[in-house]
Amino acid sequence: MASMEPLLEVRGLRVCFGPADRPARAVDGVSFRVDAGETVALVGESGCGKSVTALSLARLVPEPPGWYAGGEIRFVGTDLMRLRPAGLRGVRGREIAYVFQEPADALNPLFTIGAQVMEAIRLHRPDEEAQSIAASLLEKVGLPAPEALMRAYPHQLSGGMQQRAMIAMALACRPRLLVADEPTTALDVTIQAEIMDLLQNLQAELGMAILLITHNLGIVARIAQRVYVMYAGRIVESGPVRNVLDHPAHPYTRALLDAVPRLTGSRARVSGIAGSVPDPADWPAGCRFHPRCPRAQALCRERLPAVEEAGPGRSVACHFWRDA
Predict the structure, then answer these.
(1) SS3 sequence of 228-252
(2) 189 and 164 in one domain?
(3) For residues 117, 122, 123 and 127, what is the CA-based torsion angle, rounded to 10 degrees?
(4) How do residues 239-289 score in pLDDT, each as one tens digit?
(5) The dihedral of CA 246, 248, 253, 255: what is its sign?
(6) Are residues 148 and 277 in the same domain?
């Protein structure tokens, strides 16, 4: 599945908010790649910088209050950080499309579902018949009576139907990369499974890559090939999904796994992570996880750990990962 040149390669991305003399470094030197046709997961708690990273890929972070402090976002060999607005418009929606976690907020309540799906088609595929394509897309994502739904407004659809409509909009221009930012958070468990099955089926049919932003490790284990674990604006561990989830090297990855409910044994057990993600305007010195890490030592409080190779295709940023 991997190619010689990644579909997407992010190198040292830095995204800040607020004043330059005291910036909130929401994304602070993040590097990762997504190969053509694969599913890659970016996981971590709320506040770790996952969604800002996702929005940055198509330069969607509002400027101000945000600003890009450095790094590269190479998509099919082109650095999107160097593109002017006209060039970015050719990428957004057409090459990189998004599915967001709150479809009720992402859909415009004043326009019909059909109008919103057709808008992207008319923008990027002006020579094609937008109405028939939109109806076909609604049918492709499993929505009943697509012709009738074209005339419906978002409030007339259930949460699951709204999310399917969002997926239809995202697929309108046959993107190479679909960024799914917590696409099932607002849905019940049964609908979550249906949406993830739908994304997998559409990926197989269309050959697109998926970058999945989530905190749900169960979904990651089910559909992703590789995973990047993010904490406090940085990637702390990465590698093939099965290797990382079965043998976590970083204490934060292990803590995330321990927080997943397990129903084995006489009772379900969950181990929470003490404390909370720190303020991006005031990251702690040294390893940013050290205030919450049960294995922290003096070195962890003094020096930011370098990213080290931890096996084939694996990396970890921890001073003492070999001692685990």
Answers:
(1) EEEECCEEEEEEEHHHHHHCCCCHH
(2) no
(3) 140
(4) 999 999 999 999 999 999 988 876 565 555 667 788 899 999 999 999 999
(5) positive
(6) no
